[in-house]
Write a structure and sequence with these properties.
The protein is α/β, with parallel strands linked by helices and 607 residues long. Among the domains are: 235 residues, Glutamine Phosphoribosylpyrophosphate, subunit 1, domain 1, CATH 3.60.20.10; 158 residues, Glucose-6-phosphate isomerase like protein, domain 1 (Rossmann fold, 3-Layer(aba) Sandwich), CATH 3.40.50. The protein contains 19 helices and 27 strands. The N and C termini lie close together (12 Å). It binds 2-deoxy-2-amino glucitol-6-phosphate. 2-deoxy-2-amino glucitol-6-phosphate binds next to helix 8.
Length: 607
């Protein structure tokens, strides 16, 4: 969603800010802006649309050595130049960028209007700059602190004061803010990507923290205004991960990165001799798991579907009841929390507001939550009792691919650990570890279906709608396949359990609405053949993705995509590949904005 970058130091601020905003583009945005401070005055530039619109109005060279920048994803107020950030006070001496939502902005706005403050935007964020102005006497930090005390809601902010050119102030509450610590220069970022390649070290602010930066120093304060020491951490993002390299889109690059990503997820975690795995960061003893009677997985979007796969795997291997919950629903459902329930929160970004708030609700009730997170140092990673990093590397494309696969991979290891503590014998454990260790090669082999899927996508690009059908452990892959098509191509697509077909969705079947079937050679094989026949009997087209060479499938298929054979429990990691390619190539054929689909953001930091 919205992105923040800030800079103070010897470099040309405008160049640093524009680079930072470019690196934040992946989050998704609809307008952008910068404020730069030079010779005691602040100049602000903002524009709707892509960054090149902003680039065309910012000065190519400027002597400004400090500034703030923002990419906005509209919540309060339309996508207009005026609503874009930064927002300035009337005198133009204070400029501010804000991520998050100010819940009590209407009351604050009325109060400020009564004092004569004029508002020019429709945003909630603008109240902050006027509020700070109303408290400013001779100490900018105090003005920010007093203003924030009046605020209900979430914020990550960066504030520039023209009368205090050697300072840059930041604060966070519920919306991340990170300080990049360079040599003789300081950065602010809504995530470390904002200053990757420019600063190697960072400090992560906690909720309620404020920071006062000069080019050479940082001072952090907690919500009680006490100065606090923060740990300086290495920025672990590899700057090549934020570049497309030989690929035209991050989406395609990240699909191709899956063999390597899965390798990273399993390396050092497999115990072949014992047919199990070791997961270092759980912060729980194995014996604690004997008391676990159920596992509740909390997530949104693709992470939710990865959670569905994991729930299936946990129940199959460990025979522990496992269920997935939509975090946005769970948070308000007065969830039942007890000692015997273990919660897993799954999130690529670790910044998804719905998931974070659900976790806080559970923790407030005394529940134990483990994180399954990609982004190191993210809010969720820091909030949870312990957990498993999925090590997918930075995912830039808004549509998740490699993080989804790594969430499944790591949770499969978790299920195996639990399974081996229960009914899974050593021989089966060894067999699974053997299969897991061949996953990178199997995924690599599956990637070879790209050109075949491209042809199929071109053939079906004008479909009225698409149905995705599967059973068992691949049912969530049908849901994820449909989500991928929807979010990137904007075509209507739905995933259903193949068994549910005749309970309603069958009415949609017609020559213009093809069905994608995912079929593995397991328990559901014969039933799936029956479902294909139901579709074919109604003149529907069948695109079959399968691990099987069964002649009946070949005869029934309008399109037949063969993928490598694998233990059914691991099959989602292969069946997902053709789904991802299908979404990519259909979107390419339709000329979509593949890495940043309309209306979407990479990390959804508001409820
Ligand atoms: C995936 O393609 C989506 N963009 C989206 O559903 C995403 O998975 C969801 O918003 C959850 O994000 P998270 O994993 O960062 O929490």
């Amino acid at each position: 969603m919205c992105g923040i970058v800030g800079y103070i130091g010897p470099r040309q601020a405008v160049t640093v800010l524009m680079q930072g905003l470019k690196q934040l583009e992946y989050r998704g945005y609809d307008s952008s802006g910068v404020s730069i401070l030079n010779s005691g005055s602040i100049k602000t530039f903002k524009k709707i649309g892509k960054l090149h619109n902003l680039e065309s109005i910012v000065p190519e060279s400027s002597k400004a050595k400090s500034g703030i920048g923002h990419t906005r994803w509209a919540t309060h107020g339309k996508v207009t130049d005026v609503n874009a950030h930064p927002h300035t006070n009337k005198s133009g001496k204070i400029s501010l960028v804000h991520n998050g939502i100010i819940d009590n902005y209407v009351i604050l706005k009325e109060e400020l209007e009564a004092k004569g403050y004029e508002f020019i935007s429709e945003t909630d964020s603008e109240v902050l700059v006027h509020l700070i102005d109303s408290y400013l006497k001779d100490d900018p930090k105090e003005a920010v602190r007093k203003a924030l005390k009046r605020v209900d809601g979430t914020y990550g902010i960066a504030v520039l004061f023209s009368d205090y050119p050697d300072q840059l102030i930041g604060a966070r509450n519920g919306s991340p803010l990170i300080v990049g610590v360079g040599e003789g220069e300081m950065f602010l970022g809504s995530d470390a990507t904002a200053f990757v390649g420019m600063s190697k070290q960072a400090i992560y602010l906690d909720d309620g923290d404020m920071v006062v930066l000069t080019s050479k120093s940082y001072k952090t304060y907690n919500r009680h205004n006490a100065e606090v020491e923060k740990e300086l951490e290495d920025v672990k993002i590899d700057s090549t991960e934020t570049k497309k390299g030989e690929f035209p889109h991050f989406f395609l690059k990240e699909i191709h990165e899956q063999p390597e990503a899965i390798r990273r997820a399993i390396v050092g975690r497999l115990l072949p001799e014992f047919g199990t795995a070791k997961l270092g960061g759980l912060n729980l003893e194995k014996r604690d798991f004997f008391d676990i009677k159920r596992i509740h997985i909390i997530a949104m979007g693709s992470a939710y579907y990865a959670g569905m796969v994991a729930a299936n795997t946990i129940e199959t291997l460990a025979r522990i009841p496992a269920q997935v919950f939509d975090a946005s629903e769970l948070r308000y459902s007065n969830p039942i929390v007890d000692k015997e329930t273990l919660f897993l929160a799954v999130s690529q970004s670790g910044e998804t507001a719905d998931t974070i708030l659900a976790v806080k609700e559970i923790q407030n009730k005394g529940g134990i939550v483990l994180g399954v997170v990609n982004s190191v140092g993210s809010t969720l990673a820091r909030l949870t009792h312990g957990g498993m990093y999925i090590h997918a590397g930075q995912e830039v494309s808004v549509a998740s691919t490699k993080a989804f696969s790594n969430q499944i991979t790591v949770m499969t290891l978790f299920a195996l650990v639990l399974g081996r503590m229960k009914d899974v014998p050593l021989s089966r454990g060894k067999e699974l570890i053997e299969q897991i260790s061949t996953l990178p090669e199997k995924v690599e082999e599956t990637l070879k279906c790209a050109s075949q899927i491209e042809e199929i996508a071109n053939k079906y690009k004008n479909s009225q709608s698409l149905l995705f059908l599967a059973r068992g452990i691949n049912y969530p892959i049908a849901l994820e396949g449909a989500l991928k098509v929807k979010e990137v191509s904007y075509l209507h697509a739905e995933g259903f359990s193949a068994g549910g077909l005749k309970h309603g969705p069958l009415a949609l079947v017609c020559p213009e609405t093809p069905s994608v079937f995912i079929i593995t050679e397991g328990e559901y094989f014969e039933k799936m053949i029956g479902n294909i026949q139901e579709v074919k009997a109604r003149n529907g087209k069948a695109i079959i993705v399968t691990t099987s060479n069964d002649k009946r499938l070949i005869d029934l298929a309008d399109e037949y995509v063969k993928i490598p054979e694998i233990d059914e429990i691991l099959s989602p990691l292969l069946t997902i590949i053709p789904m991802q390619f299908f979404s990519y190539y259909i979107s390419l054929a339709l000329g979509r904005d593949i890495d940043q689909p309309r209306n979407l953001a990479k990390s959804v930091t508001t409820e």
